[in-house]
Amino acid sequence: MIAVVGAGPVGLTAAVVLARAGVPVTVLERGPALGTASRASTFHPATLDLLAGLGVAEEFIARGRKVHDLQWRSRTGELLTRMSYAAIADRTAHPFRLHAEQTELTPLLLEHVPDIRWNTEVVDVRQDTDGVELITSGGTIRAEYVIAADGAHSTVRTKLGLGFPGVEYPTCALRVITTTELDRLLPGLSPMTYFRDPAGSCSVLGLPDHWRVILRLPHQTGVSVEALLHKALPTLADRIEVRDAHTYRTSRRVIDNYKVGRVLFAGDAAHLTSTAGGMNMNCGIHDAVDLATALIRGSALLDEAARRRRNVVTDHVIPRSEARVSGVDGQAGSVEAAVRQLAATASDPAEAAQYLVQASMLDSVPKMIQHSLEGSAAS
Ligand SMILES: Cc1cc2nc3c(=O)[nH]c(=O)nc-3n(C[C@H](O)[C@H](O)[C@H](O)COP(=O)(O)OP(=O)(O)OC[C@H]3O[C@@H](n4cnc5c(N)ncnc54)[C@H](O)[C@@H]3O)c2cc1C
């Protein structure tokens, strides 16, 4: 039996991949039910392709808002440049990004999970050469392998004595929620628009029933949300009704090894990145597919899969996420240079396609077994 710790989007994805292949799997979740906090809202084409392979994409896409192009605008709304996902229609079955709450996905995944134990908190971990013992609030469970998808503060990671090296970013993100339809205020506005201006930058995301404005700021600015909105979106701010606003800190951290004995790490338990580019959960879902697929195919593939997943984070996700906000902190000349570079990329069809392939994580997406396998649990 494989035990998955954590019923977030990552743990549930791993469990569904294993269950579809006929591998016995049990999910242990400390909460009484699925989490309901509003967190990730971006699902990239590569992730939608994987979710389609798990049979949940169609219903999920119906719950979200499709984004067909990315736009960059000045803070007064002038269109600076844009890229259309049509450029990568030959690379994905889903040439759009989807904006939907991650809490819309988890119930759909849960329907395909055969065994989940709620109110079961893993409090300690021991392992030997044949298996792993999880000491939980509901007793001890023995598994052949464990996938630790228990989030950023992973108990499994801590109890195995593993570090989580990295740094906190010097800026935090302010997320403003509004039900004002920003595309009515600014016709033609894409639900994924980056406002880039030396005087103030932000990103806006349209979801099915609200919009989000994301600003990056130094910790503790002491400036009001309204004043910050005015600076970033001077022509729109007066007409934006703020429903909610909060800040969150972001870090860059990666575990040294995704595989420690018979324990595999996935999702936030293994890596944290800035939320810019919306890649961290997407990468976690890819971790889950890659590691679960390696478990199905045979334990000899696990070390390679573990190395591959870490390299995806260090070589793709972190640098791209950081590049996405390069210049938005107001360094002189950096915003203009970044926008000039983007406009040059957008004007060249091959370069635009390459940019979108990378932003969509299509160049690092793992291969998934598309059909059920019989009796192939790892040993
Ligand atoms: C405001 C915000 C916006 C974000 N936006 C994006 C975005 O647009 N795109 C993107 O890709 N990412 C985004 N992220 C990141 C994304 O939310 C996370 O990467 C994602 O939730 C990670 O999923 P996970 O399953 O690894 O962990 P989690 O979602 O944290 O789930 C971990 C689960 O493990 C359970 N658990 C924890 N400890 C134990 C234990 N000891 N025993 C049993 N169960 C346990 C928890 O209860 C929880 O259910 C955002 C994050 C935040 C905070």
Descriptive report:
The protein has 379 residues and is an alpha+beta fold. The chain has two domains: 2-64 and 100-165 and 255-325, FAD/NAD(P)-binding domain (3-Layer(bba) Sandwich); 175-249. Helices cover 31% and strands 26% of the residues. The protein has helices at 9-20, 45-53, 57-62, 102-110, 155-159, 182-185, 225-232, 280-297, 302-324, 334-347, 349-359, and strands at residues 2-5, 25-28, 42-43, 65-67, 69-73, 79-84, 97-99, 116-117, 122-127, 132-136, 139-143, 145-148, 166-178, 192-195, 202-206, 211-218, 242-254, 259-260, 263-265, 271-272. It has an eight-stranded mixed beta sheet with strand order 6-5-14-15-16-13-17-20, with helices on both faces. Residues 371-379 have low confidence and may be disordered. The protein binds flavin-adenine dinucleotide (FAD).
Protein topology:
Elements: E1 2-5, H1 9-20, E2 25-28, E3 42-43, H2 45-53, H3 57-62, E4 65-67, E5 69-73, E6 79-84, E7 97-99, H4 102-110, E8 116-117, E9 122-127, E10 132-136, E11 139-143, E12 145-148, H5 155-159, E13 166-178, H6 182-185, E14 192-195, E15 202-206, E16 211-218, H7 225-232, E17 242-254, E18 259-260, E19 263-265, E20 271-272, H8 280-297, H9 302-324, H10 334-347, H11 349-359
Parallel strand pairs: 1-2, 1-12, 2-8, 5-14, 12-19
Antiparallel strand pairs: 3-7, 4-7, 5-6, 9-10, 10-11, 13-16, 13-17, 14-15, 15-16, 17-20, 18-19
Helix pairs in contact: 1-4, 1-8, 8-9
Bound molecules: flavin-adenine dinucleotide.
